[in-house]
């Protein structure tokens, strides 16, 4: 039996978004909150993704909180182990551990119209909260395509985010399905040890060189002794990426020079013209995420690697059949096929006003107000919500902007006083999303000639932000109360107010 616990704020998830929210709550003087995490440790996607070669494609000093600079990053682009250690460090430094409820998977959360609060059922007890901050993230639930015959495959199968470290790949025939950010790190990491590696490539990615190097001891010493140098380094990295945004969002034709650089990068490693043709994209660079690697192309050129320029269509025993008819025998299938991004798995578990689920509300596509709140779901916010993703910079910048919005949201509730809630007006949500989608039409993500995970089933880009991170920060600095309806709890009869409150329990 687990006692029911009521808190001011319930944060869902303990990745960058959830831990950032927890730190910001404490800095705002709010300590009445919990962080509900389904796993047994913090870290989010950097806990789950531990595949060989896993690393970030954003520079370390930009891929960290501005309020928690790390002068000791070992490399310009850090690996999974160091990023996860950084998040553990943030958890300890800012006193978040007492607020953690590990092993608490949220099964359902429902809005109580009478009490103006959220009732939350988890795998280990029930909670209620005045405000919910959902930070489950778009890269949390692996997506494996529905391949006929896959269930009967005679070998080993796993997703890149669920790597089986107990399984030895040495000498095995491995099929890598997918060519996204995970796959281009996995391929060169496992190529030397496997017997044969077959890459099933539905669409080739654009790959640029990765300017990665070890950060020297003198650099780290300087950052420790003079913290402003760390901030300056971060600011420079940010500024360079801000200047690149207009090419993606307004003038995609300017990306032609970048394409030539990417082709030159490929030509250095891929001498076979047939293989080079397979690996050359037919869409504008930037339409899909630009990938960074110095080792991907050299690995593909090795004699134990085959590239099948078609997606996996069917599995027959241990034979994999591609869409072009190519047949390959395999002992292992590794899926690098991404995550449920435009169909958030948390959505069916969130029930708002009138008993309507978030999944039902978003049936026609995800929409929110300023990437944070949703009409019909009062006092519910999401971190990394619809149209807050980036194609060329650090998501930590967007997360911190959303934390500003969260903080002001809570301040507005305090000013209102009493039992109150804020409900995003449908008109405000509609206006915001029409603006975003109108701007999206000019971007390379819509006009670049590709199909990507940025797009939902209706072809709408509900994932990315079509502007600079600076602009998004200005748009989310404060809450505009004209975009919200203020809800007040109905006054209760005196007898009900005097009645003792029954303690709630959950099995």
TrEMBL record:
Function in brief: Catalyzes a Baeyer-Villiger oxidation reaction, i.e. the insertion of an oxygen atom into a carbon-carbon bond adjacent to a carbonyl, which converts ketones to esters or lactones using NADPH and/or NADH as an electron donor. Thus, can convert bicyclo[3.2.0]hept-2-en-6-one into the oxidative lactone products 2-oxabicyclo[3.3.0]oct-6-en-3-one and 3-oxabicyclo[3.3.0]oct-6-en-2-one. Is also able to catalyze the sulfoxidation of methyl phenyl sulfide (thioanisole).
Q: Does the keyword Chaperone apply?
A: no
Cofactors required: FAD
Q: Which Pfam families match?
A: FMO-like (PF00743)
Q: What is this protein called?
A: Baeyer-Villiger monooxygenase
GO MF terms held by the record: flavin adenine dinucleotide binding; N,N-dimethylaniline monooxygenase activity; NADP binding
Reading the lineage from the top rank, the first entry is: Bacteria
Q: Which family does it belong to?
A: Belongs to the FAD-binding monooxygenase family.
State which residue ranges cross the membrane.
none
InterPro entries reported in the protein's UniProt record: FAD-bind_Monooxygenase_sf, FAD/NAD-bd_sf, Flavin_mOase-like
Keyword list (alphabetical) reads: FAD, Flavoprotein, Monooxygenase, NADP, Oxidoreductase
């Amino acid at each position: 039996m687990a006692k029911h616990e009521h808190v001011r704020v319930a944060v869902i998830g303990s990745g960058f978004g959830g831990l950032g929210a927890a730190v910001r709550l404490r800095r705002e003087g709010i300590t009445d909150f919990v962080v509900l995490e389904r796993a047994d440790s913090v870290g989010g996607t950097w806990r789950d993704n531990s595949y060989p070669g896993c690393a970030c494609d954003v520079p370390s000093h930009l891929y960290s909180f501005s309020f928690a600079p790390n002068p000791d990053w070992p490399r310009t682009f850090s690996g999974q182990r160091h990023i996860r250690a950084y998040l553990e460090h943030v958890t300890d430094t800012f006193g978040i551990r007492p607020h953690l409820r590990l092993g608490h998977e949220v099964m359902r959360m429902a809005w109580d119209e009478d009490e103006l609060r959220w009732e939350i059922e988890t795998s280990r007890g029930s909670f209620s909260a005045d405000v919910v901050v959902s930070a489950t993230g778009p890269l949390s639930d692996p997506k494996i395509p529905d391949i006929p015959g896959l269930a009967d495959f005679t070998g080993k199968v796993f997703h890149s985010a669920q790597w089986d470290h107990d399984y030895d790949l040495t000498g095995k025939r491995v099929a890598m399905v997918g060519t996204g950010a995970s796959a281009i790190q996995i391929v060169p990491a496992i190529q030397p040890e496997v017997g044969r590696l077959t890459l099933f490539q539905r669409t080739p990615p654009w790959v640029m060189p990765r300017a990665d190097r070890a950060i020297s001891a003198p650099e780290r010493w300087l950052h420790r002794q003079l913290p402003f140098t760390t901030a300056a380094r971060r600011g420079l990295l940010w500024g360079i990426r801000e200047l690149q945004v207009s090419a993606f969002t307004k003038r995609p034709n300017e990306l032609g020079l970048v394409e030539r650089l990417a082709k030159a990068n490929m030509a250095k490693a891929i001498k076979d013209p047939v293989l080079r043709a397979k690996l050359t994209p037919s869409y504008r660079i930037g339409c899909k995420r630009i990938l960074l690697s110095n080792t991907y192309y050299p690995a593909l050129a090795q004699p134990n690697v085959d590239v099948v320029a078609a997606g996996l269509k069917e599995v027959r025993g241990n034979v994999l059949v591609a869409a072009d008819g190519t047949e390959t025998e395999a002992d292992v299938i590794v899926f690098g096929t991404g995550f449920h991004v435009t169909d958030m798995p948390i959505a069916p578990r969130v029930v708002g006003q009138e008993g309507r689920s978030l999944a039902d509300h978003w049936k026609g596509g995800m929409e929110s107000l300023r990437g944070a709140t949703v009409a019909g779901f009062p006092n519910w916010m999401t971190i990394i919500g619809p149209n807050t993703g980036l194609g060329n910079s650090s998501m930590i910048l967007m997360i911190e902007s959303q934390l500003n919005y969260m903080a002001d949201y809570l301040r507005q509730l305090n000013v209102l006083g009493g039992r109150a809630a804020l409900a995003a007006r449908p008109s405000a949500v509609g206006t915001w999303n029409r603006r975003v989608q109108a701007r999206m039409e000019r971007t390379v993500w819509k006009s670049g000639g590709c199909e990507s995970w940025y797009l939902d089933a209706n072809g709408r880009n509900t994932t990315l932000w079509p502007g600079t991170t600076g602009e998004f920060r200005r748009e989310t600095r404060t809450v505009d109360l004209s975009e919200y309806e203020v809800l007040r709890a109905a006054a209760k009869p005196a007898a009900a107010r005097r009645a003792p409150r029954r303690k709630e329990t959950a099995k």
